What does this fold into?
Amino acid sequence: MKKILILAIDQGTSSSRVLVFDHSGFCRAIASRPLRQHYPKPGWVEQNPEEIWQTVFISIQEVLEKIKGPYSIAAIGITNQRETTLFWETKTGKALGPAIVWQCRRSAAICEELRKSFGDDFFHQKTGLVVDPYFSATKILWRFRHEPHLKRRAQNGEILFGTVDSWILWKLTGGKTHSTDLTNASRTLLLNLRKGQWDDEILTALKIPHQMLPCIQDSIDHFGVTAQIGKLPSGIPMMGIAGDQQAALFGQACFEPGMIKNTYGTGCFILWSLGKKFVLSKKGLITTAACFGKNRMGYALEGSVFIGGAVIQWLRDELKALKDSKDSSRLAQSLRSNEGVYLVPAFTGLGSPYWDPHARGAIFGLTRSTSQTHIVRAALEGIAYQVKDVLEVMSKEVHIPIKELRVDGGASKNNFLMQFQADILRAGVSRPREIETTGQGVAWMAGLGIGFWENEQELCSLRKKDRSFLPKMKNVEIKKLYQGWCMAVQKVLVSN
It folds into this structure.
């Protein structure tokens, strides 16, 4: 009997993954390819658009080879690293220059100009975002400034802009679909979040041509059908698209207001479900589009930590303090405390709630007895502190205490980090059995789109818990540790 399956493309910062799910929610097969990042100047981060596509293409071919027995792919979903900015030619589909990655800070000076010319509130009220190099519009402006011919070509309809989802969709449909979804559009600094449309006033102010932008659709919608792509047949409907963090929110079954998830990936991304309620942050958070089901678009508060799991990679690759990232949990647990050492991983500035692109990393509290193990532990604790910074503000904004944090992403496998996170938050941390929640989330979206799964209630039953971490630390100790962290952060801030 032929298996009916859903294929999910999860294009991330460091790799492209393709997963295949059956009706029980089980991941039948997975294939992935690493993706290189390039750092031509301090604070700059680039990727090759064609390499992005090739890693996706090869992973699709490999995952299809792994499926055993007869099968049929019923629908495809795409989830992606957000904000990363690409240009390509309308006629040929040829990529123009590098993809400017979300982490890239090259547009910091442009952001300062925008604040002076228009003020933060002009953008915040419309988009829910803050003016920061993180968001796509500032990257578009940087390219227009340094490559004026691109602006002229955009005005003539010769080139297109897209985030990574639009690029992959263009490729999969053979250049027939230039679209994005609301969650990705909400990360550009160009979307009127309340209206769900590109904001004409912002486009006019920034002189960005409307014709270069993709069409906007709901996350669960028909985005076209596949062209023949190697072993992937033509005619498969593309039924779900979402930015990686919104896909993870969906994959964690956070369908109701007040539910929270954090993805511990390269960075940390905390989303607090708001449902249909629109909350505009006054304390350095951003408001973003989110999907809670078919025809159920809504909002979430988001805090973005730029350096999360990347600090563990830095310890391994640059400091040589680890042979394997997995060793960090064991080393951290070998110490009774960090003995006053704090590591603030502001390698590319600080995100929520500080939004300081000029902050840089630092280690505080070093003594003669400080070892590499102390620094490893301080690095892991620094991830948890940054998450607490965001959640404390979120809780105050919505006037609801933190009850449970649902976690996923590679670093969520780190038991020391998860326990310390529960301790410092004074709240439970729930880790699912399936930590591929980003790919799972967009697979669920695509499946809902074709009726493969009936509703959100059915999806809730598919989420299986692996382990819960409950707080054990005394309040006095938590307060002392967190005060030390807050003092360390204040020392690295430049803009505030």
